[in-house]
Amino acid sequence: MYAGIEAQRQLKAELVREAFHRLAKVDLEKLDFSSGEPWQYRSRIQIHKEGNVCGFKARASHRVIPVVDCPIVDKALLPLLAHPPNDEVRESLARLPDGRWNAVASDGWRLEGQDKSATVNVAGKRLTLSLSGFFQSNLGLLPQLIDYVVSSFTPKDINSTDERASWGGIIADLYCGAGLFGAFLAAHFDRVICVEENQSALTLARLNVVGPLHEFHAVRVENWLDHSGNQLLDVVVDPPRTGLSPLVREALVKRRPQRLVYVSCNPDTLARDTGYFLAHGYRLKDAHAFDFYPQTTHIEAAVRLVYEG
């Protein structure tokens, strides 16, 4: 049964509220909700090539189904799904062995196997991403999440008419990936500390987070927190679906950053970890849901936490 877009948004907001009620023992009286275009929003897809067939795999199967059109895929990527493909696509696919390949909308399209990286426009910045690594696929909604994260650290006394004002200080960007948040935080902080165990992703973060004083650590977040002597006043975390490990939660509570922004692709682990912080001196300032994947059941969310002791 299909639900219209407004019904989808209501259901997803309820998923987030239910997770916080069940796992954090918090009733979200206010939950901000951001959404973008419901169709043709995906700028990154995985295609499967099997002989002369190129398309998507059937659910719970290895069977490749040719798909000549997909209503949630960016128009720039549709030539890769066309049957028969145009000459450019045919030549590109002919050079690839059978298997799964990532494609990204970037000044047309870029295809894994023939391209190693792609450059995309995000909120006025050109960012480099890997075709084989993860990067948010809904670029249209991404500026709203970036604004939520960056504005979380605005000093109270900042001149609201001067959006380019320098804030100074140090911020830790944990699980930084290719440096999405760090790229924008770098304009306001003297030093952004990027921590990411995937060395390939951290190599891209070095390109995207521009400035001479920023730090890049290719280690697990647990190890960095255990050995770093930096005083942390501001932290942003964007962990995988499993959320923060007990070691990371404990280490962050021990460090007591004043402001903590938590971005998550899993409302359950976000609520679980938020409950832990609330039990250790933090206050939930607000929560925000981001509908990055319309026409699916997935919903992402973020919270702002402030240490009050």
For the termini, the CA-CA separation is 48 Å
Main sheet: strand order: 1-14-15-13-12-9-10-11
> How confident overall, as mean pLDDT?
92
Outline type: globular
CATH hierarchy, class of the largest domain: Alpha Beta
Number of strands: 15
Radius of gyration: 21 Å
Structure characterization notes:
The protein has about 300 residues and is α/β, with parallel strands linked by helices. Helices cover about 25% and strands about 25% of the residues. It has eight helices and 15 strands. It has an eight-stranded mixed beta sheet with strand order 1-14-15-13-12-9-10-11, sandwiched between helices. A hairpin with an 8-residue loop joins β14 and β15. α1 runs parallel beside α8. The chain starts with a helix and ends with a strand. About 5% of the residues have low confidence.
List the helices and strands and how they pair.
Blueprint: H1 5-24, E1 32-35, E2 44-50, E3 53-57, E4 64-66, H2 87-94, E5 99-105, E6 109-111, E7 117-122, E8 125-130, H3 142-151, E9 170-174, H4 180-185, E10 191-195, H5 199-208, E11 215-217, H6 221-227, E12 234-237, H7 246-255, E13 259-264, H8 267-278, E14 282-291, E15 300-307
Brief description of this entry?
By secondary structure, this protein is of the alpha/beta class. The protein has helices at 5-24, 87-94, 142-151, 180-185, 199-208, 221-227, 246-255, 267-278; strands at 32-35, 44-50, 53-57, 64-66, 99-105, 109-111, 117-122, 125-130, 170-174, 191-195, 215-217, 234-237, 259-264, 282-291, 300-307.
